[in-house]
Design brief:
Helix 1 crosses helix 3 and helix 2 packs across helix 3. The protein is α+β, with helices and mostly antiparallel strands. Strands 4, 5, 6, 8, 9 and 11 form a six-stranded antiparallel sheet that branches. Strands 19, 23, 24, 25, 29 and 30 form a six-stranded antiparallel sheet that branches. The protein is rod-shaped and about 125 Å long. It has three domains: 102 residues, Winged helix-like DNA-binding domain superfamily/Winged helix DNA-binding domain (Arc Repressor Mutant, subunit A, Orthogonal Bundle); 182 residues, no CATH class; 155 residues, Immunoglobulins (Immunoglobulin-like, Sandwich), CATH 2.60.40.10. It has seven helices and 30 strands.
C-alpha cells in the first residue's frame, strides 16, 4: 500500500472513532494541516466522508458518509472504484473530443464533394457562346470492376465560353472521407453555338462524357472534383448552310476547394445561382499536369496539286484505351491555308450564314479532320453529323501505337471549295481525344 493510501486509512479510522476536526486529526497523525486537508478533500470528493453542519460552524467537522457497517478495507475498495470510474469518464470524454475533432476536420465521417467544371473550348473564329444542356452527373468510386457510380441528380445549362480561368459548381454528393474517386461522367442532351449574333445547333460526337481522374483521387474535407471539359468544335460547310460538330474532350482531378469549408446547402445555392469562382493556381497546376497519356510521336504533312497527305503517329503510354476523336491543323504563320474555288462554285458560297467564321483575309484559320474506327482521317461532312454518337473515333489500346492518315483533296461545300497548303508553312497539330488534347508544334509542309 502506498504512503498516501495508508494516510487515508488512518484518517478514516480516526473519523470512525469520533476524531472529526481537521486540527485534531493533524495533531494525531503528526502531519501538517495542509496535507491532511488535501486527504480530507479527496475522501470527500470520493463520497466516503461528509461535513457535519459546516454551514453553522467556523471549523469543519467530518463523519463517514453512507458507510455504516463497512470495514475500512471495504471503504478503500469503494474509493478505488470511484477513482477508476473518474479516470474512465475522463478518458471517455477525451476520446469523444478526439472523434469530434476528426469529424470536424474531415479525418472521419462524411463530407460534401462538389463537382466543378472549367476551361473554355476550342471554337471557330467569331464564336460568342457555346451552350450545353447536361444531365445525369455522377462520380465513380471503388476502382474498375467492383466500383459504384454515385448519382448527383444534377442537370443544367452552361456557357462553356464563360469559363476562362474560372470554374462553376454543377453538382455534388455526400461521400465518406478517404473515398477514392476515379471517374466522373455526365450526358449532353443538346448543344448550340452563337456565331456573329446567329445561333446554330451543334451535333456531338459522343453524348455521354466520361473523364478519368488523374493523380491523387482521395476525398478529404473541403476537396472536390475539378472537371476540365475542353471540346473542339469543327465546322462543316454544305451547299447552302453551315453545320457544327463537337468533339468532346475531358479530364478530371481531385483538388482542394476554393476556400473555407462549405455545407451542402451553400453548394446547392451556388449551383442554382450559377456562381463562378476564379481558378486557384494549385487547381490549374493539377489540371496542367493531368495531360493525356497519348503522345504525338511524329507528323508528316505534304501538299501537291490540290492533294494533301497527312499522317499522325500516336503512342498511348497509359493503362487505359484512348479514343481519338479528330485532328485539328492550326497555321502558326501566314499565308495559312488558301482557298481555291472550282469553276462551278458560286461566289455566295463564302458568304452563306456562318460560313465566314474560319476565313480571315482570304485564308482558312483552322482545319478539322475527323478520326474513324479504321484509322483514317476525313473531312467532316453532313454524313458525319448524321453519324454522331457512333462511327466516330479511333480506339488506341494501352501501350499501343497507331498512325492515322488522310490522303486526298481538302474540299468544302460538297467539293465546290478546295483548299491547298502552301509550301514552307508551319502548323500546330492538335489531336483531340476523349481524355484531353495532345499537340505538336513546328510541323512544316513538304
Amino acid at each position: 500500500m502506498s504512503k498516501h493510501g495508508s494516510t487515508k486509512d488512518r484518517i478514516l479510522k480516526l473519523i470512525s472513532e469520533g476524531t472529526d476536526n481537521l486540527s485534531v486529526i493533524s495533531v494525531a497523525l503528526g502531519l501538517a494541516p495542509s496535507t491532511v486537508s488535501k486527504h480530507l478533500k479527496d475522501l470527500e470528493d470520493a463520497g466516503v466522508i461528509e461535513q457535519k453542519n459546516s454551514h453553522v460552524r467556523k471549523w469543519k467537522y467530518y463523519r463517514l458518509a453512507n458507510t455504516s457497517g463497512l470495514a475500512i478495507s471495504d471503504i478503500r475498495v469503494r474509493m478505488a472504484s470511484r477513482a477508476n470510474m473518474a479516470v474512465a469518464i475522463a478518458v471517455g470524454l477525451g476520446v469523444l473530443a478526439l472523434i469530434g475533432y476528426l469529424y470536424a476536420y474531415g479525418v472521419l465521417g462524411s463530407t460534401y464533394v462538389p463537382v466543378s467544371i472549367t476551361d473554355p473550348p476550342q471554337v471557330p473564329f467569331g464564336t460568342e457562346a457555346l451552350y450545353i444542356n447536361y444531365s445525369s452527373l455522377s462520380v465513380h468510386t471503388g476502382g474498375a470492376g467492383n466500383g459504384t457510380w454515385i448519382p448527383m441528380n444534377s442537370s443544367g445549362r452552361l456557357d462553356l465560353m464563360s469559363l476562362i480561368n474560372e470554374s462553376q459548381v454543377i453538382g455534388g454528393a455526400s461521400m465518406r472521407v478517404n473515398s477514392r474517386i476515379d471517374a466522373v461522367r455526365f450526358n449532353i442532351s443538346s448543344a448550340s453555338i452563337e456565331v456573329n449574333n446567329l445561333t446554330y445547333p451543334v451535333s456531338t460526337a459522343s453524348r455521354q462524357i466520361t473523364a478519368f481522374v488523374s493523380g491523387n483521387s482521395t476525398v478529404k474535407a473541403n476537396y472536390g472534383v475539378m472537371l476540365d471539359f475542353s471540346p473542339v468544335v469543327t465546322t462543316i460547310y454544305t451547299d447552302n448552310s453551315t453545320l457544327f460538330l463537337m468533339l468532346p474532350s475531358a479530364k478530371a482531378v481531385v483538388a482542394e476547394g476554393q476556400g473555407e469549408r462549405m455545407t451542402r446547402t451553400q453548394y446547392q445555392g451556388m449551383i442554382e445561382r450559377q456562381v463562378r469562382s476564379p481558378l486557384k493556381p494549385s487547381q490549374a497546376a493539377l489540371l496542367f499536369r493531368a495531360n493525356p497519356t497519348i503522345k504525338v510521336s511524329g507528323v508528316l504533312l505534304s501538299s501537291s496539286q490540290n492533294r494533301t497527305s497527312l499522317s499522325v503517329t500516336l503512342d498511348n503510354n497509359g493503362s487505359r484505351s484512348i479514343t481519338v476523336r479528330g485532328v485539328l491543323l492550326l497555321p502558326n504563320q501566314s499565308p495559312g491555308m488558301r482557298q481555291q474555288r472550282s469553276e462551278e462554285i458560286q461566289p455566295e458560297i463564302i458568304s452563306v450564314k456562318g460560313a465566314n467564321m474560319y476565313f480571315m483575309l482570304g485564308h482558312l484559320d483552322a482545319l478539322g479532320l475527323i478520326a474513324y474506327p479504321n484509322g483514317t482521317l476525313g473531312m467532316p461532312s453532313p454524313d458525319t453529323v448524321s453519324r454522331s454518337g457512333s462511327g466516330i473515333g479511333y480506339e488506341l489500346q494501352p501501350a499501343g501505337e497507331a498512325t492515322l492518315s488522310y490522303n486526298g483533296t481538302l474540299s468544302l461545300a460538297g467539293g465546290r471549295l478546295n483548299l491547298t497548303l502552301p509550301g514552307n508553312s508551319v502548323y500546330t497539330v492538335l489531336v483531340v481525344t476523349n481524355a484531353g488534347v495532345a499537340s505538336i508544334s513546328g510541323v512544316s509542309t513538304t
